[in-house]
Amino acid sequence: MSKAKEISEFVKKALNTFSISEHEYFYSTDPKTGERIPRDLFSSADINGEVIGRLSAALGIDKQDIIEMNEAPLKAYYSKYPFFGLYRRYLEECERQREFSDGLSTEERLLAAIFGESSGLKMEKRYDGKAVKQRLIKQLQDIDSLIPGTYHQDATLCDLAAETEYIISYPHVTELMRSFLQMVDEAGSLFFKGIDTELSKSEAQRFNFLCTALEIYDIIMPSVRMSYATLKKYRSVYKAEGMKEFTSYVKVRRFVDDAPWRCREFLDDGALVQRFVNYFPYEKSRIREFVMDVSRFACRFRWSDAKQIELDEWDEIIYEEWGFDTNGRPLEWTRVYVPKTDAELFDWKPYIQKLSRAASPEKKGGLRAPKSEWSIKGFTNPTRMMARVGVSGGAK
Amino acid sequence: MNGTLSPQLRAGNALRRLISENYPSQEEFAYDYGADVRTVNRYVNNGINKIDVIQELAEFFDVPFEYFFTSGNTTEL
Fold first, then answer.
1. ipTM given for this complex
2. Facing residues of A168 across strands?
3. From the CA of A341, how many Å to the nearest CA of chain B?
4. What average pLDDT score do residues A298-327 get?
């Protein structure tokens, strides 16, 4: 195996260990189709110094460690932050418990999915779609007495789709959150230190590693990943904005986007959950949305006799996503939640009730979603964007 | 002007009442709820015509769906 190939394997393993996407290094995107196309880390058998430099910055280790494939600094990060081991298991549990367990092996499930009942294997379904549809119709008839016109007597439901969510059990979720918040704290401390002074080499590496592993981006420019180089570049802007909260400057994507409230143990440590929401206030509304989706079937359909609707400019943007029918008229969709029965909620109900309370107004016992510092300060996104563009040399 | 209100306007009035009972302002509610304040203003002033939106609000405020159409909520505020 060539040295370039060996280094590629080493890098793949490192990215995998920290659940960092390989896309940036091992794939390109077809500009026409948007498809991912696999590519080699190095375009030739030569070891490209620029690629090594990028990897060194992203992983927070020395270039030489990459060239020599030295695992020691990566192992040190892995031991320092329990997050990574716990996070990997969390993702595995999400995947495993997402599938309704019916006693079939993975191979059998695959066979059953491809060949149906002719394979001799029967896939057990978690929910009965026909029963949900019947309840939807009954509910529309009931609502019609409150909102006349809800139920279309002589029409049928077209393109009906129902979606729902699921709960898993992951007893380590509080430990995972604690480690995650510790890493965010640490990245924040280094960020503010780096605004005022030069970071030492090891601090800069640790900051780079945390930014990559936690998928931290500039909050105003979502395509700009935070790193020590970014911090130095926009240092004057960050300093002038003068805010005290790390999340006023950055967006943390890792873990937050993975809906940890899916775990029935999520609320076990109330103070920790409040700390999480203090960092990420918007997540309270995502918990609220999750409560709706997990306790109900979100049904979306179009009545066969739906009237043509007039679109204003804003609606047109929305309907571009939703589509038009074969005559090119905008589709009038209806969205209704159908509550799950106790049987369809399995043993999730007590947890969903607690989660619903957590997502409710603070006056009713819900979590407090503190206002973001920059909204209090009255900064607007365009102002902040212009300041960054100015530094980039894009504006006079 | 007092007249019988449409279900949509009744739902908007109910929301206005729920907000005033639980939040200092519509802005505070919009932030906590994760909605655009202009959308909330529109709901309150022009009514709510989407069933799923009313269902979501009912869950959030822990009131029955019917609350948005009843409870002394039949005339203009």
1. 0.92
2. A263
3. 16
4. 66
Q: Which of A204, A185, A192 is nearest to A276 (CA)?
A: A185
- Residue contact A288–B7, C-beta within 8 A: no
CA–CA gap between residue A287 and residue A177 (Å, rounded)? 15
Q: Which residues contact A37 (CB under 8 A, 6 or more apart)?
A: A27, A28, A29, A30
Cβ(A127)–Cβ(A164) below 8 Å: yes
Provide, as residue numbers in chain A, all residues whose Cβ is less than 8 Å from the Cβ of B9: none
- Answer whether A290's CB lies under 8 Å from A163's CB: no
Mutation site for A-interface testing, chosen from B15, B22, B31 by largest number of A Cβ within 10 Å = B31
List pLDDT tens digits, range A167-207. Answer: 999 999 999 999 999 999 999 999 999 999 999 999 999 99
Q: Quick one: pLDDT at residue A377?
A: 72
Put simply, the answer to whether B56 touches A292 (Cβ < 8 Å) is yes
pLDDT digits (tens, 9 = 90+) for A131-167: 999 999 999 999 999 999 899 999 999 889 999 999 9
Tokens 């948005």, located at residue: B68
pTM, two decimals, is 0.86
Do B61 and A360 make contact, defined as CB atoms within 8 angstroms?
Answer: yes
Name the token pair of A207.
């900051």
Chain B positions touching A289 (Cβ under 8 A) are 34, 56
Please choose, from the candidates A360, A94, A349, the residue with its C-alpha nearest in 3D space to the C-alpha of residue B60: A360
User: Under 8 Å CB-to-CB from A143, ≥6 apart: which residues?
Assistant: A150, A151, A336, B51, B65
For B4-60, write each residue's pLDDT tens digit.
889 999 999 999 999 999 999 999 999 999 999 999 999 999 999 899 999 999 999
Contact A337 B52 (CB under 8 A): yes
CB atoms closer than 10 angstroms to residue A289: 15
Q: Do residues A100 and A126 make contact, with C-beta atoms less than 8 angstroms apart?
A: yes
Q: Which of A296, A363, A369 sits opposite B31 (nearest CB)?
A: A369
End-to-end CA distance of chain B: 9
